[in-house]
Amino acid sequence: MKKPATGQAFGLHLRQLRERRGWSQQALADVADITKKTVYRIETAQTSPTLDVLTCLAEGLEISLPELLHFAPPASLNRS
User: Fold this and answer.
1) CA gyration radius, the chain
2) Could you give the CA distance from residue 33 to residue 64 in angstroms, rounded to a whole number?
3) C-alpha atoms less than 13 angstroms from C-alpha of 73 in its C-beta half-sphere
4) Is the pLDDT assigned to residue 76 strictly greater than 60?
5) Are 30 and 76 in contact (CB under 8 A)?
6) In this predicted structure, what is the pLDDT of residue 75?
7) CB atoms within 10 A of CB 7
8) What's the CA angle centered on 55, arms 51 and 13, to 5 degrees?
9) Residue 61, φ and ψ in degrees, nearest 5
10) Residues ≥6 apart with Cβ < 8 Å to 71
11) What is the pLDDT of residues 24-72, one digit of tens each?
12) Is-contact 7 13, C-beta < 8 A?
């Protein structure tokens, strides 16, 4: 992963979206038609999701892709 801090920030965002719905990782995996391991690996920044997986996540969460990708960047990217 080229930008691990960004991966961590996205993983936290995904976890927050999932937990707001009261879903387990398995529940998100089921509605997104991906594996629980994939959800876990994204949330823990062990992997970067492909566009295909991002689309599946957005559809499973019933949000737009831009909404899924709207998350706070890591602090290091906020510096001018």
Assistant:
1) 12
2) 17
3) 6
4) no
5) no
6) 73
7) 21
8) 90
9) -85, -5
10) 9, 10, 12, 13
11) 999 999 999 999 999 999 999 999 999 999 999 999 999 999 999 999 8
12) no
Secondary-structure breakdown of the chain: helix, strand, coil percentages, each rounded to the nearest 5: 65, 0, 35
For 54, the token pair is 């991002």
Whole-angstrom Cα distance, residue 60 to residue 54?
10
Hey, what are 15's tokens? 């976890």
- Backbone torsion region of residue 29, taken as left when φ is above 0, otherwise alpha when ψ lies between -120 and 50, otherwise beta: alpha
- Alpha-carbon span 4 to 64, nearest angstrom: 24
Question: Of 12 and 74, which is predicted with more confidence?
Answer: 12
Residue with tokens 């629980």: 36
| The model's pTM | 0.89
Could you give the 3-state DSSP secondary structure of residue 78? coil
